[in-house]
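Give me the fold.
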Amino acid sequence: MAKIYYDLITAGQWQIENVPIRWRSAVQTLLDADIQEGSA
């Protein structure tokens, strides 16, 4: 599920605030990893 929410956010369709609390931490981790890869 985290990947689905991640895809929605990166596509610009959702924001992290829309992600259910249960999944928010995992989704934020994916987003943070994506940002770190982009800056490396």
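The chain has a mean pLDDT of 94.
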